[in-house]
């Protein structure tokens, strides 16, 4: 069961954002005067309620949105959501809330950089390789990409390769979606992806690159990676060597996003539903009370010793 306090907390934050979002959009909205009167009926479920239901679905690790809405929200959460709509109508409202959900994630759910960051990419598979020709949802927009775990299918529109940057507290600092065959170093070359990052950022061997290191160093970011076997060894600070061993922190975050928040599954009926599922999963992770984090006090004691 989801506690009432947590539901109220999530709904309050989302509702306050939606109110400000509505004020801003009303000022810049273009209205065409056609002389024909149109009805503007308000939905039973507001945007903030739809977004809250989507976040709660991922927050409590449910696996089927339809069962969650029909047999949990409409049965056990009548006090929280007294006026609900049909499931088909809820899916329509869900797709309409993509823009406010994305802006809410970018403005209210990302953490602050502490000077210690970790970067990694993880594939979001659409289907198994054997079902490539039978897959219809992403037909015409899917391509093959390769990572350290093997080949997977990705839609070319936005890509199904999720690039994440987190801090030592396990908070997501920024994210980016690319094609599956895009090199892991390409997102870091985009200044908008790392403009909120400073200090040191730790990555795996896939981020090795002299040009990338120099570009990030000019922007105030020190990229630290392990070296390959065919590279000359170089001196590295003990602190950096310890932090590279702690890079498994971001792997734990990826695991929670996939297995708890369920940002990856192969049951999407449309590409729009994939986007809303991914965004709401990232928002739900930001509301987790306990996130995987590093105990920097223990690391400092090891360095002193």
From TrEMBL:
Q: Which InterPro entries match?
A: Tnp_DDE_dom
UniProt domain Transposase DDE: residue ranges: 111-270
Q: What is this protein called?
A: Transposase DDE domain-containing protein
Q: What species does this protein belong to? A: Sinomicrobium oceani
